[in-house]
Design brief:
By secondary structure, the chain is an alpha/beta fold. It folds into 4 domains: about 160 residues, Molybdenum Cofactor Biosythetic Enzyme, Chain A, CATH 3.40.980; about 55 residues, Molybdopterin biosynthesis moea protein, domain 2 (Alpha-Beta Complex), CATH 3.90.105; about 90 residues, Molybdopterin biosynthesis moeA protein, domain 3; about 70 residues, Beta-clip (Beta Barrel). The strands form 8 sheets. It has a 6-stranded mixed sheet, with no helix packed on it. Helix 1 packs parallel to helix 6. It is elongated, with a radius of gyration of 31 Å. The structure holds adenosine monophosphate and magnesium ion. The site of magnesium ion has 6 residues, from loops.
């Protein structure tokens, strides 16, 4: 059976990024940059004040102190969004507000709190060094430098920078369209489940994970365990999707028809079954240039294989540099054991101090522990980890 890291390598090497497109800035959040982005201007774009106060010549106030104030004549003001033509000559000052353009001649700003208005003059009680309280043009960003690298995501913080640079649109990779199909005669979505029936949940869960990964999700109707119905559903999904994720029907029972249905529409099974717990009956296939991920039906298996095996592929389709789940150090608050012969992705809970506990029952149908978990531990086979050990915890959302 294929090991997880080999399966990851094979999947990732089968995937090429989709085409790039130019998108208005306000629609690029979480998209991946298709090219390096250079700063079209410097930031700040002009020298400006870091404080409410007065633009001065630093030398004029070098002796200013509480007992020996210096008086300056105020010759104007620069409200937000304006500039002043008049230069600040020696012995004078100009009223400024945070962000006001520094007038010519001035080389420092005295804080308002260090001043007082007296007899029509401004009394200054404190000295300032040259360029104190001034934000210099270009001290943050110099025009021309790379401010976003190809393969990096557009985060809220990068949007702040791109917006401040006046960038109107960005080259990003097209979002993949990913279909989600659930299979199983036992599944119902509404009403009272009949004998042996259960409420369906995988499509909801996978659709939300896949949306978080940045893809455009299409959820298809539930499919019964019939070869004909599954064939038709796969065919319809591949018509409109770049990748299709199915759940259930990919194991070894006679009702598991996903693999034969996929082959019947011309799909190639690249591999099937992985040495992983949960998630062993996982299938990866190609239909023309498109991808099939056949996930197990057990809800936790579907969840884990989506994060570990589907996520890197969907990120690579989007041109992302970093394909892997964020891994942080954590300290075990209790002993963990994997007595099995496959790597076990254990549902865990890591607290804000980094202490790691089991999230509960680790069976592949157990949703209570999944809902409690905020981390996975990738635990090698036949291993015992004592309490106190430092381990890597894998995260997916915060
Ligand atoms: P299967 O892989 O089709 O044999 O399904 C394995 C287990 O997962 C069974 O107990 C199914 O009832 C359950 N299951 C399959 N698909 C879903 C689904 N979409 N939502 C919730 N449970 C499911
Ligand atoms: Mg089934």
């Amino acid at each position: 059976m294929l090991e997880v890291d080999d399966a990851q390598k094979r999947i990732v090497s089968a995937v090429q990024p989709l085409a790039s497109e130019n998108v208005p800035l306000d629609q690029t959040v979480r998209r991946i940059l298709a090219k390096h982005v250079a700063a079209p201007i410097s930031l700040p774009s002009f020298d400006n004040s870091a404080m409410d106060g007065y633009a001065v010549h630093a030398v004029d106030v070098q002796t200013a102190a509480a007992a020996t104030p210096v008086s300056l004549k105020c010759i104007g003001a620069v409200p937000a969004g304006q500039a002043i033509e008049t230069a600040v000559n020696r012995g004078t000052c100009v009223r400024l507000f945070t962000g006001s353009a520094l007038p010519d001649g001035a080389n420092a700003v005295v804080m308002q709190e260090e001043t007082r208005i007296a007899n029509g003059m401004i009394e200054v009680f404190s000295s300032v060094k040259p360029w104190e309280n001034v934000r210099l043009a270009g001290e943050d960003i110099k025009a021309g430098i790379v401010v976003g690298e190809q393969g990096e995501p557009v985060t809220a913080a990068r949007l702040a920078l791109f917006g401040a640079l006046g960038i109107a649109e960005l080259p990003v990779i097209r979002r993949p369209i990913v279909g989600v199909i659930g299979t199983g005669n036992e599944l119902v979505t509404t009403g009272q489940p009949g004998p042996g029936q259960i409420y369906e949940s995988n499509r909801l869960c996978l659709a939300s994970l896949i949306t978080q990964i940045g893809a455009d999700v299409r959820v298809f109707a539930l499919v019964r365990d019939s070869l004909g119905e599954t064939r038709a559903a796969l065919q319809a999904a591949f018509e409109v999707c770049d990748a299709v994720v199915t759940t259930g029907g990919v194991s070894v029972g006679e009702h598991d028809v996903v693999k034969p249905a996929f082959q019947a529409i011309g799909g190639t099974c690249e591999f099937w079954k992985i040495a992983v717990k949960p998630g062993k009956p996982f299938m990866f296939g190609r239909w023309r240039e498109k991808l099939l991920f056949g996930l197990p039906g057990n809800p936790v298996s579907a969840f884990v294989t989506c994060l570990v095996l589907v996520r890197p592929a969907l990120l690579k389709l989007q041109g992302a540099k970093n394909l892997w789940l964020p891994a942080h150090p954590g300290i075990l608050a209790e002993e963990f054991a994997n007595q099995g012969d496959r790597i076990h992705f254990i549902r865990a809970n890591v607290d804000p101090k980094g202490m790691v506990c089991s999230a509960g029952l680790q069976a592949s149908h157990a949703l209570g522990s999944l809902a409690n978990a905020n981390a996975l531990l990738a635990m090698p086979p036949e291993t015992i980890w004592p309490a106190g050990r430092t381990v890597e915890v894998l995260r997916w959302e915060f």
